[in-house]
Amino acid sequence: MSTAGKVIKCKAAVLWETSKPFSIEEVEVAPPKAHEVRIKMVAAGICRSDDHAVNGTMYVPFPVILGHEAAGIVESIGEGVTTVKPGDKVIPLFTPQCGKCRVCKHPEGNFCLKSKLSQNQGSLQDGTTRFTCRGKPVNHFLGISTFSQYTVVDEMSVAKIDAASPLEKVCLIGCGFTTGYGSAVNIAKVTRGSTCAVFGLGGVGLSVIIGCKAAGASRIIAVDINKDKFAKAKEAGATECINPQDYKKPIQEVIAEMTDGGVDFSFEVIGRLDTMMAALLCCHEACGTSVVVGVPPYSQNLSMNPILLLLGRTWKGGVFGGYKSKDSVPKLVADFMAKKFSLDTLITNVLPFEKINEGFDLLRAGKSIRTILTF
């Protein structure tokens, strides 16, 4: 019997307050309104940004259903939806692409002005929510909320992908892989024969390494205090791995000595102010580029001396690897299907959705790169 136009009751991981475990609850998911899409989730990745929302370093309104890296199948569509239809395999987009704003029309820009990332709103574009639990409205996260068996998103926040693609793998293209890979090839524009340093070897950090290798970097230095991640980093393409705790001097000085004054490209993929500065300082003062990839702590500032940029360094950042989401995600999935890159290196654990708290424990303990939740 069709569920189109009806409220669906399903399970979701609801976060009722900061720094608490997720609660598996029965929620009601309203049907999509005009220009909205309801999706049956198949697989979702656990990303560090979700944990930032749990522990309060990223502000979210409570109660909330988190999750922003996933893949699923369209269950039903609202009036006026033209880019997807029921039965399509799709990836929800935490960075939408409205196609009409100044940023979407800019050839380089990708941070659509309709994005919820900068607005900290727990709603869809019309300002309301489609989730209800225990008689209370539940907030959306980044407009997609993928830790639920069903979710509703705006049409600008979903991309149709290859019907043959394995959703339990390509879900990583919804955030981690694309953010890292694109930071290397789009934002930094890593050049052939260059030297790179990557701070942080989680799923996004390893994806940066994959991007640096694909761009032809000759030397890729992986930096992390967890030596257990070094084997995966080398598998992804790192040429050497170093632990800052093994040295008496600041890691930026170590890297500068290793690379004749500094690397060509550095990437901070942790979200800490001290490592952002270390990454900036380890790239060459006259010709280096440093990219902020990790999400920084909410409402904290970093002070720096402008002389660090005056001689020629470039300091930049970007969201979702600089990719225009709705245009680029289907192409990245096609590249994956054509075996232009692998996602297997990034996936270390697969758990049923109900074990979401166990998945976050693995992340916090440094025992997983990416845990995939299956529905």
Task: Describe the structure concisely for a colleague.
With 375 residues, this protein is an alpha/beta fold. It has helices at 48-55, 102-105, 167-170, 176-188, 203-214, 230-236, 251-258, 273-282, 307-310, 325-337, 356-364, and strands spanning 8-14, 23-29, 36-45, 70-77, 89-92, 131-133, 136-138, 150-154, 158-160, 195-199, 219-223, 240-242, 265-268, 289-292, 314-317, 347-352, 370-374.
Give a structural overview.
The chain contains eleven helices and 17 strands. The model has no long low-confidence stretch (mean pLDDT 96). α7 runs parallel beside α8. It has 375 residues and is α/β, with parallel strands linked by helices.
Entry keywords:
375 residues, alpha/beta, seven-stranded mixed sheet, six-stranded parallel sheet, 11 helices
